[in-house]
Amino acid sequence: MTVLAASRAPAAGNPWLVAAIVVVPTFMEVLDTTIAVVALRYIAGGLSATVDDGEWVLTSYLAANAIILPMTGWLSAHLGRRRYFLLSIGVFTLASGLCGMATSLDQLILFRVVQGLAGGGLQPSSQGVLLDAFPREKQGTAMTLFGLAALLAPVVGPTLGGWITDQYSWRWVFLINVPVGLLAFGACYLKLRDPDYLTEARLELRKRPFSFDSIGLSLLVLVMVSWEVMLSKGQEWDWMGDPFWRVQILAILFGAGLVGLIWWELRHRSPVVNFRPLRERNFAACCLIIFFAYAVLYGASTSLPGLLQTLFGYDALTAGLVMSPAGLFALMAMPAIGMLLGRGTDARWLLVAGLLVMAAGNYWMSQMNLDISPGQVVWPRVLVVLGLSMCFAPANVAAYLYTPLELRGAAVGLLSLLRNEGGSFGTSMAQTLQERRDQFHTLRLGETLDPLNPAVSSFIEQAQGQLATGDPAAQQQLALQALENLRQQQASALSYFDCFWIFAMVTLALVLVVPLMKRSVAAKGAHIASE
């Protein structure tokens, strides 16, 4: 067993000021993955397009974002992290303004691709800056600050997007980034500097012959575009039942491309995507936990508004307001988690506690019914978001604690990619599960709805008695329609509750991954044991 001590001094400058500066562009970028969701119908109508075509506004952004995220380590190493961060903020801000001024759907999709490519560098760069700005005993605090942006942005995104769209226009969903981006660019330009180890690494790279991994980049584009389009359109195209073989072809391209990408990058001297951090088991375990935890968060965040709007009659803004208090509790909990990490609490125990709270919140939602009040929706949602907020900082501390400095850039990019793709996966699976379970429950509830069932006969007689139309045939038809509406309502409710139950089981299963991790204490003077 080898013992490694920390070998890095914190970056120069006030770390709290640095943190305040870099979390703003991160919040802005993560917000853009969810803020446009509620505005899709308005965007499609405003640009004379169908809603299905309008979904490419989301898919194009996510695909472009996914392509750039694993490359951020390579780009930071060659350009310098500060220079790359500033470039990302500038292009993201410009692309946001162009999105707000787009006059056609094709233009908007093109600008969203540019926005996604630029935005992909913001999360990993800001996270790397925070890790270098704070000493190791305050790594929990650093990841807590990053978590405030990465966790709260998707929580408040739909509510903010709905309010902006209702009060102003869908264009302001994008234009709001322009003043924020300009302020963030100016502050980062004045205050950020690259640490010595990154400067030395970049100088060392310049001494070597330049080698660009074009094959790796091509495979990465193939993999991420296939994955994002498959997730976005899979349910619409009936997944593996697609008669035109679109999903099947995308799945083959994704699988073959991923195998080829891993094989090629592990052999390349200067890979555009470095998979070597995954050899460290703490990092690999945290990648798995973060991927599925964010899948559950986004899945629940997709299913709950659907339940509230379709079955309870809430509008988008009211549904968002019911979900918003969870963000306040997460905001209060994360500093406490950072303090516990700073005092030497093993990150693994906090991970277990957070996952159990998250599972409890989803299970609570699976036990709801159609007679609940808005207040009874708030508290299970609070548990879900609170549980993830308890997991976020510990998972990030444990992930990077044993990762060598020279692999940190690649590790940050990979974890950011899996966090984002977990959200895409959860959103797609929630939609698929809800629709498939809706069909299942509709058939099951209809198995006993026949005239020989005394309960059915009683319901129809009572309904006919309440429908004084004067036409017996019309009364019977309306009574049967009322029974059908009730069946559809109950089937839909059961399908949403099934989704929450599955999310609870997935979160509970993640607890089994934690014992595979090594001791993860980020306190001053603590030693790191490498097995």
Structural key phrases:
single chain; 74% helix; 531 residues; Growth Hormone, Chain: A; two-stranded antiparallel ribbon
Short description:
The chain has about 525 residues and is an all-alpha fold. The chain has 22 helices and two strands.
Description:
The chain has three domains: 15-194, Up-down Bundle (Growth Hormone, Chain: A); 214-269, no CATH class; 276-461 and 473-531, Growth Hormone, Chain: A. The longest helix is centred in the last third of the chain and has 39 residues, at 408-446. It is globular. The protein has helices at 15-31, 40-46, 51-54, 56-68, 72-79, 81-100, 105-119, 122-133, 139-167, 172-175, 177-191, 196-207, 214-233, 246-267, 281-311, 316-323, 325-342, 347-366, 375-401, 408-446, 454-466, 472-510, and strands spanning 2-4, 528-530. The chain has 531 residues and is mainly α. The protein has 22 helices and two strands. Mean pLDDT is 84; it is low at 1-12 and 525-531. Strands 1-2 form a two-stranded antiparallel ribbon.
SSE series: EHHHHHHHHHHHHHHHHHHHHHHE
Largest sheet: 2 strands, antiparallel
Taken together, the total number of domains comes to 3
Shape, please?
Answer: globular
Q: What is the number of helical segments per DSSP (H or I, 4+ residues)?
A: 22
Number of strands: 2
